[in-house]
Design goal:
- The chain is built from ten helices and eight strands.
- By secondary structure, it is of the alpha/beta class.
- Strands 1-2-4-3-5-6-7-8 form an eight-stranded mixed β-sheet, with helices on both faces.
- Helix 8 (229-232) links the parallel strand 7 (222-228) and strand 8 (254-258).
- Helix 3 packs across helix 4.
- It is globular.
């Protein structure tokens, strides 16, 4: 895939967009050919820059361009190179508006009206919330997003980590940071404001995830859920879906436990596995039966409605 990307002509266009042109991004598109009718959006993993950990978003953008797929990778407002707009709301609402602004940009400049969003870690929530209210989103690829491991999985994960941790080179540093977080309550121990949403109760998170996934499945939004082997350690039967394994929406999504891929895709092998899995899946959304079924016509107008009841417990 990487060899093809190096040989394929493509264009890279830096852009400023959104309210007050506060957002900064990079559009990558195949050169010398009409782009696919579906484009891909990529953005921050937590507070990381839009290039992604180990520049994985850049590599994915190149791999997609080699397949004829355009993409936009950008920083959410207040993160990386993007400015925080005046009168900005909380992060969930900002992320929703920023992702919609990215779609508006590609619709205006490339004439593309359907999108797949690739969200990593905390980006999974923003991607799901956007897809729930914007009909232009036809697919979500989510890496190490929401997980609901049950008792056996949690115990096995804890045991495996306990046995492996002392031999890991990062063990001493992580232990020191853990002690500081627990023992020091000063300003240095507080999380950076503005990057992450406030923690919700497990019941509220589970309720929001189930409601939103059911809504996306009803709208026929394609779903890919990927889980790393370092963060989740083990997986025997779609363990990370936990109580949702038997739900109707879980029967049609693409689920993959990537044992050889770590959470920040550090290794060359892990990067290739991630790029191949996401690249193949996104390309199928753009050129395969999923795109043919939906057609290349413009999506229906977005219905103005609030986000799903995220904080409502069952």
């Amino acid at each position: 895939m990487n060899d093809a990307a190096h040989l394929t002509p493509m264009t890279h266009t830096p852009v400023r967009f959104g309210a007050g042109e506060a957002l900064v991004g990079m559009v990558t598109a195949p050169a010398g050919q009409a782009p696919a009718a579906v484009a891909c959006l990529m953005f921050n993993m937590g507070a990381n820059h839009r290039v992604g950990p180990r520049r994985i978003n850049v590599k994915l953008a190149h791999a997609l361009a080699a397949r004829g797929v355009s993409s936009l990778r950008f920083d959410l407002g207040g993160i990386g190179d993007s400015d925080l707009p005046a009168n900005a709301g909380d992060l969930p609402s900002r992320a929703l508006h920023d992702l919609q602004a990215g779609m508006d940009l590609l619709e205006k400049t490339l004439g593309i009206g359907q999108f797949v969003i690739a969200g990593m870690c905390s980006g999974a929530e923003h991607a799901m919330a956007t897809a729930a209210v914007d009909a232009r989103v036809v697919g979500l690829s989510l890496f190490d997003g929401f997980a609901f491991p049950q008792r056996r999985t949690r115990w096995e994960r804890t045991l495996r980590r306990a046995l492996a941790a002392p031999a890991h080179p990062s063990f001493a540093g992580k232990t020191q940071r853990w002690l500081k977080r627990r023992l020091l309550r000063g300003e240095a121990a507080k999380p950076m404001p503005g990057f992450f949403t406030e923690a919700a109760s497990p019941a509220a998170t589970e309720a929001w995830f189930g409601q939103t996934m059911a809504l996306l499945a009803e709208r026929n939004v394609a779903l890919q859920l990927l889980y790393s082997g370092s963060l989740h350690v083990c997986d025997r039967d779609r363990d990370q879906l936990g109580p949702f394994r038997a739900e109707p929406f879980a029967q049609s999504l693409h689920y993959e436990f990537m044992r050889k891929v770590d959470h920040t895709v550090c290794t060359a092998e892990g990067q290739q596995l991630y790029l191949r899995s996401v690249g193949d899946w996104v390309a199928e959304r753009c050129f395969g039966t999923g795109t043919e079924r939906r057609g290349a016509s413009r999506p229906p107008a977005v219905v103005a409605r609030p986000l799903p009841a995220k904080w409502a417990a069952p």
